[in-house]
Amino acid sequence: MTFMRTVLLAAVPLALAQVDPPGPPFPNSTYPNATDPLTDSGAMWNETSPPSYPSPWGTGLGDWADAYKSARAFVSQLTLTEKVNLTTGVGWEGEKCVGNNGAIPRLGFKALCMQDSPLGVRDTDFVSAFPAGVTIAATWDRALFYQRGFDMGSEHRDKGVDVQLGPVVGPLGRTPEGGRNWEGFAPDPVLSGIAVAQTVKGIQAAGVMACTKHYIGYEQEHFRQGAPPTSVTESISSNIDDVTMHELYLWPFADAVRAGTASIMCSYNQINNSYACQNSYTQNQLLKNELGFQGFIMSDWSGQHSGVSSALAGMDMTMPGDIGFDSGTSFWGANLTIAVLNGTVPQWRLDDMAVRIVAGWYYVDREANQVANAPTFSSWTLDTYNYQHFYASEDWTQVNYHVDVRDEHAADIRNFAAKGTVLLKNNGALPLSGNAKLTAVFGSDAAENQYGPNGCSDRGCDNGTLAMGWGSGTDNFPYLVTPLEAIKAEVLSHGKSIEDVIDDYAYAQQNALARRVTDVGGVCIVFANADSGEGYIIVDDNEGDRNNLTLWHNGDDLIRNVTSFCNNTIVVMHTVGPVLVDSFYDNENVTAIIWAGLPGQESGNSITDILYGKVNPGGKSVFTWGASRGEYGADVIYEPNNGVLAPQEDFAEGVFIDYRAFDKLGETPIYEFGFGLSYTTFSYSNLQIAAHAAPAYTPTTGDTPSAPTYGVVSNNTADYLFPADITRIPAYIYPYLNSTSLSASSGDPLYAINYTFPAGAYDGSPQPLLAAGSSVAPGGNQALYDVLFTVTATVTNTGSVEGDEVPQLYLNLGGPNDPKVVLRNFDRITIAPGASETFTADITRRDVSNWDTVAQDW
Ligand code: BGC
């Protein structure tokens, strides 16, 4: 069944696919009040984003009530400039964290420290390097999702971080080439949603605010910020229809909101030609109104493109605060003070920003989780002494305390990565006994980076074994156990022999060693990788996004060479996502294939645990392995496609990404999403489905309260002049006025031009709740989470060793436009040999619902 229809709008190229044969009326799949429900396609070239105002004020829904009470009491005491200070960063490298807002010294409220990354504490020392999102996802284990979050949150807390800039569910992984997919979990909304919720809970249980990012439609690196200084000046527009938004990209954000994420980062891209950080539809309507998000929206670094507009459209905090890095100018700061004084931003909107930020602080109990000298590190240097204000070179002092926050996390990390390792093929070669007479290890991916594990800034190179991708989503390794050293230690513990060739191009040496292995009945282990990362670093011509899906460093040739002589070759791949394995996966000399993901610091130990059977593999692939990139149905846009204007990225495939695309297009993957072998076998029986009597779904009705304000803002501009007792730090962003004249203070030649801000933006009166929203708790209409069915099945371990199985529940929703199947639940169960366990999976109302674009409800 096809899901696209021709668009009949003027000025829209009619190149969009024609359907055949026409199915039942496809409902209006764009936004409310769009033209004709019968003819609107999903994603449209030059799509526009409808306005949604006013920006919803937080009401302290659900378990946010206490935090709101405290936050309101606190914000009530603040002056206008103190409130503005909460919302605005001090500028790039103005203080020690990657992002820092202003402090409120009068009340002893310290500036907040915002620090990457989603896999550890970035830009400092004595921290752990955890497995990346893609690897923890492959464990399919809720308890491990949570534990990793808690461990990471603990390290951030102990370094003095207030907001961990993670986890990631945008990108979701629309295209396998997307550079930052590995920071997130999986191109499936349910797996990602469960993983993000557990991660958020873990991080926040440790007393640190999570920042779930990047909201939303941020699916590629090319043109994420235009392509200056070349022709394209605007960021790419992700054109997404209403169904795809709800059923795919918004889904895991809903789980993050429901789990209580204290903050959400708006992304660099545009959505339907409106920048994410000033998109009133995605921020006001979807996130704050429909999902009832109670925390604050923080901009990605320089993701803000306007002052008043972004405030009215729901953004709450600008990072790093300056317009260009170190420009000394800001859309907010003093300009937000001016905007409140001249009425272009209503006081209630600023108060709402402040309350949301402080409520997040109370919600995770930051008060009880302070450490001495926080933040105890500087992102800009590892030296003990340097400048407090790094960019301005001011205030020489101790900036790094070198606090070792790693605790006992190494054991967890080793376990996470082993549990997230996926066995794709095994002809009986694995597990290894350790008694092979000769073990041969091949490939640079087995060994050290010659510059050291942290030798390339933000891991921006692919030398040696790959244990994380590159970009801001990284941290420094405290050490990196390579596969070669761990395998060597294992082999030596058996008193056997091991040799290696780590030069990927030393074909003669590879061949010679491979022959000797075959001669004595030994084993060859080939390591290869594929890397990607964030677009500000280019590695091997890959501008963040991968240029292709092949193994790097001629991995295919390496495998071909070794297998042409070695009849017992085990291939281990450290990759950011799927790679093309068609040249070797069915070669009979390839006796096993393992995906080892991005394992973090314990890489060698984790893979050795799997290879030698100390851990029985139970990880399952979190993406589909196809035979060509074309099979994935969507791809990265690498070249401008709209002249100098914003490139248009039509998400025309709708909800059909990864396995849903393969199913729709009738393609057979090499290894399917959810696939993974074990050293034992399992059988399934006794599938039962029990229906529950749940109350009927009731669309939410009623109104919000009116917008509250806290404290009185004096109109006397003299109250906000730059204080005489503060010395200006160059390029630092302050909330203060330079003059009692607002116009002079703004310094903007366009000040007071006649401009009409969107209707409704200033309306602080009670607003109608959305049918899909809630007056009870964050996450949308609470009836969505009613359990309608429970599925159980018996899973039996039919082999001779203990093992983990991951039963996965897929549904067909039955509609004409639905994927063949969608994942809806799973569990990871450890089962003793010969024993049986019961798999139990709930199905909620949301799990069996479609988004109805006409009713604007599920
Ligand atoms: C990235 C964010 C990151 C921020 C701060 C941006 O370039 O997109 O993910 O948190 O920088 O480092």
TrEMBL record:
Residues covered by the Fibronectin type III-like domain = 805-858
Q: Name one GO molecular function term.
A: beta-glucosidase activity
Instruction: Give the superkingdom in one word.
Output: Eukaryota
Reactions catalysed: Hydrolysis of terminal, non-reducing beta-D-glucosyl residues with release of beta-D-glucose
Signal peptide limits:
1-17
* Segments passing through the bilayer: none
Q: Which Gene3D superfamilies match?
A: Glycoside hydrolase family 3 C-terminal domain, Glycoside hydrolase, family 3, N-terminal domain, Immunoglobulins
Q: What is its EC number?
A: 3.2.1.21
Give, as one word, the top-level EC class.
Answer: hydrolase
Give the matching SMART domains.
Fn3_like (SM01217)
Pathway field: Glycan metabolism; cellulose degradation
Provide this UniProt record's keywords sorted from A to Z.
Carbohydrate metabolism, Glycoprotein, Glycosidase, Hydrolase, Polysaccharide degradation, Signal
Q: According to its UniProt record, which protein family does this protein belong to? A: Belongs to the glycosyl hydrolase 3 family.
Annotated PANTHER family: BETA-GLUCOSIDASE (PTHR42715), BETA-GLUCOSIDASE A-RELATED (PTHR42715:SF29)
Name the UniProt record assigns to this protein: beta-glucosidase
